């Protein structure tokens, strides 16, 4: 695996690949890699000739009270994991390589990109500007890597839909490939932040996934969706979760629904804090999708 740190070095890699007729696959990450990230690398490896993975903790998507400074950065371990998964190129740019002016917040950066119809619900309600920062940086990286295919996980489903919409609306010449949520043996969705859970919180954390599954079963058995969700919020709260949201939304538009009788696929979405750590999860409620 070749490690590059500048846009110039990266361009030399994808230009060589393009000249050789390679299909280029790209997996963007913020590091602290786990099997969820690595499953996307595996997908890219199976479908592409040249696999590029970036590691960059994007300051534009962190709010002033969020964990940018403390976000885990185990770079040596990450590189070992990528090497073991047969990654071709690891792109590890420094902060000023991407933001030469040293920008830390979106308002300091000259150009903003937004997908507003998908950015203000769910996580967007409590993380103002988060998705604008994410999508601005993601478009910048897509322009630097110039892949044929880019790989995104369903665990961050709102983020996935925003990237899919960005690509479709701006006619970007790249295919967005979805990767199913990867889970720990007890059902907890894999996340770089899981390591911040203390032992007591970690023992409780699988209840989020279990609760979503129970709610799905109740709704599919005929239970009224609003009542099922209200009971689910109360139950999670009794276990120690601080529920930010627990809702059912259409998959494509991410608009909340009150029932599942329509033809549009619906998912259950949850965000909750446990022991100070923010956990996300989602599962399909109707339609045929990944689990």
From TrEMBL:
<feature type="binding site">
    <location>
        <begin position="30"/>
        <end position="37"/>
    </location>
    <ligand>
        <name>ATP</name>
    </ligand>
</feature>
<dbReference type="GO" id="GO:0016874">
    <property type="term" value="F:ligase activity"/>
</dbReference>
<keyword id="KW-0067">ATP-binding</keyword>
<comment type="similarity">
    <text>Belongs to the pantothenate synthetase family.</text>
</comment>
<feature type="active site" description="Proton donor">
    <location>
        <position position="37"/>
    </location>
</feature>
<comment type="subunit">
    <text>Homodimer.</text>
</comment>
<protein>
    <recommendedName>
        <fullName>Pantothenate synthetase</fullName>
        <ecNumber>6.3.2.1</ecNumber>
    </recommendedName>
</protein>
<feature type="binding site">
    <location>
        <position position="61"/>
    </location>
    <ligand>
        <name>beta-alanine</name>
    </ligand>
</feature>
<keyword id="KW-0566">Pantothenate biosynthesis</keyword>
<feature type="binding site">
    <location>
        <begin position="190"/>
        <end position="193"/>
    </location>
    <ligand>
        <name>ATP</name>
    </ligand>
</feature>
<feature type="binding site">
    <location>
        <position position="61"/>
    </location>
    <ligand>
        <name>(R)-pantoate</name>
    </ligand>
</feature>
<dbReference type="InterPro" id="IPR014729">
    <property type="entry name" value="Rossmann-like_a/b/a_fold"/>
</dbReference>
<dbReference type="InterPro" id="IPR042176">
    <property type="entry name" value="Pantoate_ligase_C"/>
</dbReference>
<comment type="function">
    <text>Catalyzes the condensation of pantoate with beta-alanine in an ATP-dependent reaction via a pantoyl-adenylate intermediate.</text>
</comment>
<feature type="binding site">
    <location>
        <begin position="153"/>
        <end position="156"/>
    </location>
    <ligand>
        <name>ATP</name>
    </ligand>
</feature>
<dbReference type="Pfam" id="PF02569">
    <property type="entry name" value="Pantoate_ligase"/>
</dbReference>
<keyword id="KW-0436">Ligase</keyword>
<keyword id="KW-0963">Cytoplasm</keyword>
<feature type="binding site">
    <location>
        <position position="159"/>
    </location>
    <ligand>
        <name>(R)-pantoate</name>
    </ligand>
</feature>
<keyword id="KW-0547">Nucleotide-binding</keyword>
<comment type="pathway">
    <text>Cofactor biosynthesis; (R)-pantothenate biosynthesis; (R)-pantothenate from (R)-pantoate and beta-alanine: step 1/1.</text>
</comment>
<dbReference type="InterPro" id="IPR003721">
    <property type="entry name" value="Pantoate_ligase"/>
</dbReference>
């Amino acid at each position: 695996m070749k490690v590059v740190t500048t846009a110039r070095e990266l361009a030399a890699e994808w230009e060589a690949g393009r000249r050789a007729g390679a299909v280029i696959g790209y997996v963007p990450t913020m590091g602290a890699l786990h099997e969820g990230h690595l499953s996307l690398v595996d997908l890219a490896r199976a479908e592409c000739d040249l696999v590029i993975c970036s590691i960059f903790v994007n300051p534009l998507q962190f709010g002033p009270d969020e964990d940018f400074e403390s976000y885990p950065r185990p770079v040596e371990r990450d590189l070992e994991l990528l090497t073991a998964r047969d990654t071709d190129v690891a792109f590890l740019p420094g902060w000023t390589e991407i933001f030469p002016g040293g920008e830390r917040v979106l308002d300091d950066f000259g150009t903003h990109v937004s997908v507003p119809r998908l950015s203000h619900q769910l996580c967007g309600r409590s993380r103002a500007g988060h998705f604008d920062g994410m999508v601005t940086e993601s478009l910048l990286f897509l322009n630097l890597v110039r892949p044929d295919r880019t790989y995104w996980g369903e665990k961050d489903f709102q983020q996935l839909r925003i990237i899919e919409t960005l690509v479709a609306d701006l006619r970007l010449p790249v295919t967005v490939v979805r990767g199913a949520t990867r889970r720990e043996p007890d059902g907890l969705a894999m996340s770089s932040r899981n390591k911040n859970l203390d032992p007591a919180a970690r023992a409780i954390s699988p209840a989020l996934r279990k609760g979503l599954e129970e709610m799905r079963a109740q709704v599919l058995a005929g239970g009224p969706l609003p009542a099922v969700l209200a009971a689910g919020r109360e139950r999670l709260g009794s276990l120690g979760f601080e529920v930010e949201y627990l809702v059912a939304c259409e998959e494509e538009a991410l608009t909340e629904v009150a029932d599942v009788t329509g033809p549009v696929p619906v998912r259950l979405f949850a965000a909750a804090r446990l022991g100070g750590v923010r956990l996300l999860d989602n599962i399909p409620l109707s339609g045929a999708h990944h689990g």
